[in-house]
Design the sequence.
């Protein structure tokens, strides 16, 4: 939304406002993203994961349908140094009763990719997947990297560090298969996926608890070495 539209919305007094932005507009933008060109094109399987993983247009329409049905909410989110966007489980008596996709107010391509990443987490939650947390993060980073590549984001803007470096390698291999017209859903190569999982497990975001005592299920000490740990997936 540009500033002119924003001021029109503000002065019209229509719609529920939160932090100066209509909540509906944010939800509509997320739905458009989940039903958009890139979401329709992203497709891969991960044969080396501990559970069957297929990410394709069904993944994103499933999340879009859950938002429309009120099963997942879209809430405004102030990006932090740890996250541009988040997916919150329905947890605790004071939390909303549905999963919440936490979305920053301004959506450029980097934030859109972050919303696609969090929507992938939402999909695993909706389908009550038994995937491990590190695998789930790795899969979500592949979605991030595919979105960055498909929208032509300059690589120097996002490949300065892991896990993006390893995720880009996976995305590039998948895109070369899309471009070669390989039919069906291409598979992520096992060695590349292992490299990406290790990059995720070693990333400070997943290695260091967000708050004292908080878990680090995707980090090296949270599960990667000590056995599989999963995010809560209660649908
Ligand atoms: Zn994630």
Sequence:
């Amino acid at each position: 939304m540009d500033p002119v539209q924003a001021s029109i919305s503000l002065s019209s007094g229509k719609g529920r406002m939160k932090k100066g932005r209509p909540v509906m507009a944010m939800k509509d933008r997320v739905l458009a993203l989940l039903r958009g060109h890139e979401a329709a094109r992203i497709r891969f399987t991960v044969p080396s994961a501990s559970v069957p993983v297929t990410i394709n247009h069904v993944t994103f329409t499933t999340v879009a349908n859950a938002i429309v049905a009120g099963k997942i909410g879209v809430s405004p989110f102030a990006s932090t140094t740890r996250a541009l966007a988040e997916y919150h489980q329905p947890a605790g008596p004071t939390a909303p009763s549905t999963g919440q996709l936490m979305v920053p107010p301004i959506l450029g391509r980097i934030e859109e990719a972050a919303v696609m990443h969090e929507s992938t987490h939402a999909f695993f939650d909706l389908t009550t997947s038994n995937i491990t947390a590190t695998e789930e993060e790795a899969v979500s980073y592949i979605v991030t990297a595919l979105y960055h590549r498909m929208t032509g984001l300059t690589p120097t803007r996002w490949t300065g560090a892991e896990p993006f470096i390893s995720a880009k390698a996976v995305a590039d291999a998948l895109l070369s298969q899309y471009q070669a017209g390989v039919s069906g859903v291409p598979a992520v190569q096992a060695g590349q996926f292992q490299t990406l999982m290790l990059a995720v497990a070693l990333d400070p975001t997943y290695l260091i608890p967000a708050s004292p005592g908080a878990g680090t299920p995707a980090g090296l000490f949270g599960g990667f070495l000590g056995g599989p740990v999963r995010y809560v997936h209660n649908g």
In short: The radius of gyration is 18 Å.
